Amino acid sequence: MRKTLTAVVLLFVAALPLSGRLRAAGRVLIAHDFSTSAQGWLIASDTGAVDPIVESRGGHPGGYISAKDEEGGETWYYRAPASVLAQLSAAEFGTLTYSVKQSEIEPGFPDDDVVIVGKAGRLSYRFDHAPGTDWTTFSAPLSAAGWTWNWNMRATQEQMKSVLSDPIRLEIRGEYRTGEDIGGLDTFRLSARD
What we know:
- With 194 residues, the chain is mainly beta.
- It has a domain at 28-109 and 128-142 and 173-191: Jelly Rolls (Sandwich).
- The chain is 13% helix and 36% strand.
- The chain has helices at residues 2-15, 82-85, 157-164; strands at residues 28-32, 42-45, 48-50, 53-55, 64-68, 77-79, 95-102, 114-118, 121-125, 136-141, 147-149, 153-154, 167-173, 182-191.
- An 8-stranded antiparallel beta sheet has the order 3-2-6-13-8-9-11-12. Strands 1, 4, 5, 7, 10 and 14 form a 6-stranded antiparallel beta sheet that branches.
- The chain is globular and about 40 Å long.
């Protein structure tokens, strides 16, 4: 009886379309945990690119990088190093995952959460919520669904591919409120498709 039940369950799972099955995460192309350094990341601030603060503990887990808003009016971002940009073309149809936190709980203001700029154009992705004061993990698919092309159009997969194959900049939002704030970034992962 037990073997028959197991066989029936296995046949049922095999008959499900791929989207109905649980899928394992793709192969990790690059990962940054910020345990001992900023690993080349910068802060794109109101006054230009500056080094983040490396926090040795309090991360998700271990260390993390942080920055304090300069209150100049612009949204500041974490800017990825060349080592991340070099892996973007291999990550098409994969995922970009990271954890962030902010110093204050506020609904914030709408802005792009992930920005990838290439010679071909600009891609942006927005999540439907802001992080809290504890670590919040976000994951963006690196396929056209949900991405915006050049600020106001839905991205196509061809546009996504054109930017990922020749990227200039990848940025992750660090500021979620108007006024003084501190943000943290940890556990960045860029994964290939399953």
